[in-house]
């Protein structure tokens, strides 16, 4: 009996995660053997899955640059689509024509990406569109062109309730089905992490009332996964997590900082790795909103794979594209901010310079002490 007891303890501690120094060493050794370069990792997932969700924090420059770097490799491996959250599907025909045109038309892009909300005039996100056009210029006339499928919806705050009888996640999932799945194609689906959840159910939680209402199984990835469970995969791009203290509080490191410790031990080499059915997936988190409603919440509950690009202290945010805010888009920005409740005096002060200042964000605002 004593032998059986010790064997049970051995099994228990073998799968208990990487919270202690010895367990961090175990995870470290695992990544030395099984970690891949981020680019190789993403491409490898398409050997088994058709719809790979790549979830970001938003505005991290290195994330957008990484997706741009994937374009040639995706195409070479038979993936001809990136589904792209950040601009509106309403303009898809214009984007399609722009990406296959002989000449680049910057103004056409800048004036045909969002109907109402022009607050996403960031150079890197816009440049991804241009980089797809540039890649298509390298293809022969008889070759299929690379495509961006816009997932965005018209968010118009002038409506009394912009989301009345309208669900953004259902909209995005419908576009993916129409433009990717029904055409029997594969896609990298690049979006915010909350849209990218497939198996994970996000808590609907009221911090003021300290009340968990439900676990939401209706994000974009959830919807696609429910219909095509064997074809979906979620990869999380490394970034801080929402604290269990609230949305507006200092963010926390994922899985209690263990990933950051391991990657530091690996000299912060960019790396992708599986969480599903691995020792990395056993990493537990106790200080994050994402754990609400779960017992023994762990990384494998949250995502199927993970990509580390660089440590927080090296993070840079995207930059505002000055040429985006010409007279046409400045007028749209003024209309948008008026609907958001800005007073006429504030609206009149909006210029190209003030728009750039207003929309420029620093990672320190979001990451705070994590960047030290």
List the helices and strands and how they pair.
Elements: H1 2-14, H2 21-34, H3 38-45, E1 51-56, H4 61-76, E2 81-88, H5 92-99, H6 106-110, H7 123-137, E3 147-152, H8 168-181, E4 187-192, H9 193-196, E5 202-206, E6 211-216, H10 220-227, E7 232-237, H11 258-265, E8 271-274, H12 299-302, E9 305-308, H13 327-339, H14 344-348, H15 352-359, H16 363-367
Parallel strand pairs: 1-4, 1-7, 2-3, 2-4, 7-9
Antiparallel strand pairs: 5-6, 8-9
Task: Provide keyphrases for this structure.
seven-stranded mixed beta sheet, single chain, two-stranded antiparallel ribbon, 40% helix, 372 residues, disordered N terminus, globular, alpha/beta
Task: Please explain how this structure is put together.
The chain has one domain. With 372 residues, it is an alpha/beta fold. The strands form two sheets. The chain has a seven-stranded mixed β-sheet with strand order 3-2-4-1-7-9-8, with helices on both faces. The chain has 16 helices and nine strands.
Oligomeric state as shown = single chain
Helix tally equals 16
Biggest β-sheet: count, sense, barrel?
A: 7 strands, mixed
Count of all domains: 1
Q: What is the succession of H and E elements? A: HHHEHEHHHEHEHEEHEHEHEHHHH
Mean pLDDT: 93
Structure class: alpha/beta
Summed up, what is this model?
This protein has 372 residues and is an alpha/beta fold. It has helices spanning 2-14, 21-34, 38-45, 61-76, 92-99, 106-110, 123-137, 168-181, 193-196, 220-227, 258-265, 299-302, 327-339, 344-348, 352-359, 363-367, and strands at 51-56, 81-88, 147-152, 187-192, 202-206, 211-216, 232-237, 271-274, 305-308.
